[in-house]
Write a structure and sequence with these properties.
Elements lengths: L2 H13 L2 E2 H10 L5 H4 L12 H4 L1 H17 L6 E6 L5 H9 L6 H4 E6 L3 H10 L6 E3 L11 E6 L8 E6 L2 E10 L2 E10 L16 E4 L1 H17 L1 E10 L8 E4 L2 E3 L9 E3 L2 E2 H9 L4 E3 L3 E2 H7 L2 H9 L4 H15 L4 H4 E8 L12
Parallel strand pairs: 2-3, 2-5, 3-4, 5-10, 10-14
Antiparallel strand pairs: 1-7, 6-7, 6-9, 7-8, 10-17, 11-12, 11-13, 15-17, 16-17
Helix pairs in contact: 5-6, 9-10, 12-13
The protein binds S-adenosyl-L-homocysteine.
Length: 359
């Protein structure tokens, strides 16, 4: 039994069942025992792998796309280049390398990395030396004095969700309590959260809907910043157009694990509800939100196949095979190509829509 599990059981015994969101945020970010607070979880030796860790092409395509957005918006100087949850800094390193020869881009850039994890921040600091970057724990600390060019990959899926089960004309919240000395799921009393009012029309008795309030607040903040100062945000994650069903999952050493089995020792994520994200952004006057685009289609439109062919020229044998596999993994519908989606936010003005996206 982990120390965090003991603490959660003692806390529930003291104050009663907790929400799934409470459980998620404690497991991921508890300063002493939290998953992200205590380790580098990424890569072959860790628990999971992400798109930038699979191939440099991911960051190259996205870096050039963001730089094109900057050019299309009149090359503002200065501007904020921001990444939410940069992991090991690989995506940003690839973006910066790809954009190094775009005249004026690095000179105008003020780089900000938003990171809650101490161990990951240390890795990012090593990898991103020399760019004068600033690290913040939350986007709320970012100065609001320049256009915002923001990227987030597999960040929103780590934000704590609440889960509600449809019951009659309302909902009951899924909670975590203790049964026979072990953590166990249960249900709270009837509630009618305002944010779920629109889901009473498209759900049936017993169905689960997830609500990620921190993600909606964050997207509202991003949208307001873009409405005020201009810029573009590109958000990539796994998920779909609307939340339906229990998608909370734990992953440990590249394999699924029971969600309640090892608090603080496994990654916990949930599908991102891009419909709710888009509504939160559209609620901000002056902000334009693109259509949700599958990752495979976005990367194809940004030229990943031409880049893959170019890189393949210098490779042979096992390195060539793994390069081809990486391209397939990022783009193919059976791999990450369809499950992962992207959405972009920009200002309602004359500038073209971010490359690769449709309105
Ligand atoms: N974007 C990276 C890493 C994804 S893992 C990649 O694609 O490889 C999620 C990242 O978000 C990690 O860096 C984690 O430490 C960070 N993170 C998770 N929750 C956070 C929070 N609430 N605030 C800030 N960073 C957070």
């Amino acid at each position: 039994m982990t120390a965090l599990k003991d603490r959660l059981i003692a806390r529930i015994a003291r104050t009663g069942p907790i929400s799934v969101a409470d459980y998620m945020s404690t497991c991921l970010l508890d300063p002493e025992h939290g998953y992200y607070a205590t380790r580098d979880p990424l890569g072959a030796g860790g628990d999971f792998t992400t798109a930038p860790e699979i191939s440099q092409m991911f960051g190259e395509c996205l870096g050039l796309a963001l730089a094109q957005c900057w050019i299309d918006r009149g090359r503002p100087d200065p501007f904020h280049l921001v990444e939410l949850g940069p992991g090991r800094g690989v995506l940003m390193a690839d973006m910066l390398r790809a954009t190094a020869r775009i005249p004026g881009f690095h000179e105008a850039m003020r780089l900000y990395l938003i990171e809650a994890s101490g161990p990951l921040r240390a890795i990012q600091q090593r990898r991103l030396q020399g760019y004068g970057a600033t690290w913040l724990r939350a986007l709320s600390g970012l100065p609001d004095d320049a256009p915002l060019f923001l990227i987030a990959n597999e960040f929103l899926d780590a934000l704590p969700i609440r889960q509600f089960v449809r019951a009659g004309g309302g909902w009951r919240e899924r909670q975590i309590g203790v049964s026979d000395g072990a953590l166990a799921f249960g249900l709270g009393g009837p509630v009618l959260p305002e944010a779920l009012a629109c889901r009473l029309t498209d759900t049936d008795e017993g169905q689960v809907v997830e609500l990620c309030l921190p993600a909606l607040a964050l997207v509202g903040d991003i949208a307001r910043r873009i409405a005020r100062a201009g810029g573009v945000a590109v958000l990539i994650d796994y998920g779909g157009g609307r939340s339906l069903g229990d998608t909370l999952q734990a992953v440990r050493r590249h394999a699924p694990a029971p969600v309640l089995a090892c608090p603080g020792e496994a990654d916990l994520t949930a599908h991102v509800d891009f419909g709710a994200i888009a509504r939160a952004a559209r609620a901000v006057p002056g902000v334009r939100v693109t259509v949700m685009t599958p990752q495979g289609r976005l990367l194809e439109r940004l030229g990943i196949t031409a880049r893959a062919e170019r890189l393949a020229q210098g490779l042979q044998g096992a390195a060539l095979q793994s390069h081809i596999a990486a391209h397939r993994r990022l783009t193919h519908p059976d791999e990450m190509g369809t499950l992962f989606k992207a959405i972009a936010l920009c200002r309602e003005d004359a500038a073209p829509v971010p490359p690769g996206f449709d309105i």
